[in-house]
Write a structure and sequence with these properties.
The chain is mostly helical and 154 residues long. It contains six helices and no strands.
Length: 154
Amino acid sequence: MTWELRPKLAKALLHLRDVPRALRLAWDAAPTWTALSVALLLIQGILPVATVWLSRSLVNSLVAALRAGHDSPNVHNAVVAAILLGLAALADEALRALSSWVRTNQGELVQDRAEEGRLRLGDPEEAAEEAAVEQLFSSTGSLSLDTTRKRRNG
């Protein structure tokens, strides 16, 4: 192992301990989006294998068709393999777009949940600001604290 790699590996291992907590946060905040994200990742992991298999099938069918002549059933097999290869490429692009959309929705929910957790844990700056706002509006009685929070967070 090279000396340049050790600090990077140590840093990665240090962050590895945060993975279960991050997964729990993602699952608690957006279980449906998280499950969909995992399913899409699994499908996207299978597509490269399917692409290699279909490419191999296409090449083998083309070689067999060239050897046997144009009337060979291998020409049909080559056309089918080419169509399936094109469909796999289209599916890959569609799944990338879908995964991006799912990650965006999941990320927003996770971010909201993390923000809720930060507020519950009592960020000192946020707590001081809330206390000042609450004191100000409790003396005037003109606005409720909930309205102020919605404006500030909205």
